[in-house]
Write a structure and sequence with these properties.
It comes from Bacteroides faecium. The chain has five helices and seven strands, in the order αβββββββαααα. It is α+β, with helices and mostly antiparallel strands and 236 residues long. The protein has two domains: 99 residues, Immunoglobulin-like, CATH 2.60.40; 93 residues, no CATH class. Helix 2 packs across helix 5. The longest helix is centred in the N-terminal third of the chain and has 20 residues.
C-alpha cells in the first residue's frame, strides 16, 4: 500500500513541476471593443457651475428623430474658470447625426444647445471639436435662447422698451434681478430664490396683464428653465 501511495505522490509532484516548466499561467482577459467613432473636444467652457444638479452640461450625440441624446459625456467643472477643458466621448454610432455642446436634463433631453457639429461625414474614426471660449451659464442660456430670440423686439432700445425693461445682452441682468417692477407694485421683476414671487414668472404663466405673455414661450422645459434659474439664486 505504501508503495502505491508513494507512486501517486511522485506522479502528482511530477505534474506540478511540468506545469511550472511551461511558464506562468495568466488569467484570461478579453479585449473590450467600443463600437462607433470617438469625439475629442477641447475648449474654454465657462459657467458650468452655475447650473443646479437637475441639469448637466455635456457633449452629446443626437439622431435626427429625437431630442433625447443617444450618447453623452459630462463636461467637468474646471479647477479654475477660464481653464481649457479636454473631453473624449466614445461610442458614437451611425444613428448620430449631430454632436452638440449642450445642457440636458436627467432624462437626457436637450434643453439648450450652445454649439453643434453637423458634418460627421468624415471617414476618420476620430471626430474633433474645438468650442473656443463659450459661456454656458444658465443665465447666458436664457439670454441667448429666450430674450435674444423672442423678447428684444419689444424690450430692446432703452428709450422705448416696453414697461421700461431692456433685455438686451449686457443690460438685462441688472434690469431684472432685484429690480422693482413698474407693472406690479411692491414686487421685483426677479426675486432671487423665489420664482413664484417674481413678476417674470407671473407674467409668463398668467393672463390679465396689459400685454399677454402667457403664450410667448410654448416649450414647457423653457419655462421650467427660467423658474429653476430664479429658484436657484438667479446667478448671472
Amino acid at each position: 500500500m505504501k508503495k502505491y501511495i508513494l507512486l501517486g505522490a511522485y506522479l502528482l509532484l511530477s505534474a506540478v513541476l511540468v506545469s511550472c516548466d511551461d511558464g506562468p499561467v495568466y488569467e484570461k482577459t478579453g479585449t473590450i471593443s467600443e463600437e462607433g467613432r470617438t469625439l475629442k473636444m477641447s475648449g474654454t467652457i465657462n459657467g458650468i457651475n452655475k447650473w443646479p444638479d437637475s441639469y448637466s452640461i455635456v457633449v452629446a450625440g443626437f439622431s435626427d428623430e429625437s431630442e433625447y441624446a443617444v450618447v453623452t459625456k459630462t463636461i467637468p467643472v474646471p479647477a479654475t474658470e477660464g481653464e481649457e477643458i479636454k473631453v473624449t466621448m466614445t461610442g458614437i454610432s451611425d444613428e448620430v447625426s449631430t454632436v452638440e455642446l449642450c445642457a440636458i436634463d436627467k432624462l437626457r433631453r436637450r434643453i439648450i444647445s450652445f454649439q453643434s457639429m453637423d458634418d460627421l461625414t468624415t471617414d476618420d474614426d476620430t471626430l474633433r471639436m474645438n468650442t473656443g471660449i463659450v459661456n454656458v451659464s444658465m443665465y447666458s442660456a436664457i439670454q441667448q435662447n429666450v430674450f435674444n430670440k423672442g423678447c428684444i423686439g419689444c424690450h430692446g432700445i432703452a428709450t422705448s422698451a416696453a414697461a421700461g425693461l431692456t433685455l438686451l445682452e449686457g443690460n438685462s441682468y441688472q434690469n431684472l434681478v432685484g429690480h422693482s417692477s413698474t407693472v406690479a407694485t411692491g414686487l421685483l421683476r426677479v426675486k432671487a430664490g423665489s420664482a413664484e414671487e417674481s413678476v417674470l414668472h407671473q407674467i409668463l404663466h398668467t393672463t390679465g396683464w396689459k400685454t399677454d405673455h402667457s403664450n410667448m414661450i410654448t416649450e414647457p422645459h423653457t419655462l421650467t428653465l427660467i423658474d429653476d434659474w430664479i429658484d436657484n439664486g438667479a446667478q448671472e
